[in-house]
């Protein structure tokens, strides 16, 4: 695994938007092990937007298939309007879902199930892209 720049890792606040408790717990635990600060876990669109407004994360992992009145793609669009970078998590492989997700211009898309290495590489890539902006 590649080295992380400590100042990026230590100060990076990450929001998790995931309605599957086991996946959310795994992500939160993985972020902690990698040295990132999880600033909240939301299982609904409303909770995600509220946490983003109060916690000001740099990045959010968002489940595409979030249940409720707004799916993860709609939530990601709102998060992007708040200046939060998005990485999608998806178990879906259909082209229409991928097309909708890509229209939000995420920093990446991770297929479920993902492992710690996948998450670490995605975080590094997203952090690098954020620095270049």
Provide keyphrases for this structure:
133 residues; alpha/beta; five-stranded parallel sheet; single chain; Rossmann fold; 6 helices
Q: Radius of gyration, Cα only, in angstroms? A: 13 Å
Please provide the count of β strands.
5
Main β-sheet, spatial strand arrangement: 2-1-3-4-5
Helix content: 40-55%
Uncertain runs with pLDDT below 50, 5 residues or more? 1-8
Give the class from helix and strand content and strand pairing.
Answer: alpha/beta
The shape is globular
3D structure, described in words:
It is a single chain. The chain is of the alpha/beta class. It has one domain: Response regulator (Rossmann fold, 3-Layer(aba) Sandwich), CATH 3.40.50. The protein contains six helices and five strands; from the N terminus they run αβαβαβαβαβα. It has helices at residues 6-11, 21-34, 45-55, 72-81, 95-103, 116-132; strands at residues 13-17, 37-42, 59-63, 85-90, 108-111. A five-stranded parallel sheet has the order 2-1-3-4-5, with helices on both faces. Strand 4 (85-90), helix 5 and strand 5 (108-111) form a beta-alpha-beta unit. Helix 3 packs parallel to helix 4 (72-81). It is globular and about 35 Å long. The model is unreliable at 1-8 (pLDDT under 50).
Short description:
This protein has 133 residues and is α/β, with parallel strands linked by helices. The chain is built from six helices and five strands; from the N terminus they run αβαβαβαβαβα. Strands 2-1-3-4-5 form a five-stranded parallel β-sheet, with helices on both faces.
């Amino acid at each position: 695994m590649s080295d992380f720049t400590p100042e990026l890792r230590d100060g990076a606040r990450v929001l998790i938007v995931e309605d599957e408790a086991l996946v959310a717990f795994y992500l939160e635990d993985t972020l902690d092990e990698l040295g990132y600060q999880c600033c909240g876990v939301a299982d609904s669109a409303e909770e995600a937007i509220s946490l983003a407004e109060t916690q000001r994360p740099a990045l959010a992992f968002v489940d595409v298939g979030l249940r409720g009145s707004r799916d993860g793609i709609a939530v990601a669009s709102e998060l992007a309007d708040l200046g939060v970078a998005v990485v999608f998590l998806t178990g879906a492989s259909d082209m229409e879902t991928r097309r909708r997700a890509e229209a939000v211009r995420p920093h990446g898309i991770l297929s479920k199930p993902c492992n710690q290495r996948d998450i670490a590489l995605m975080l590094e890539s997203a952090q690098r892209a954020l620095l270049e902006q």
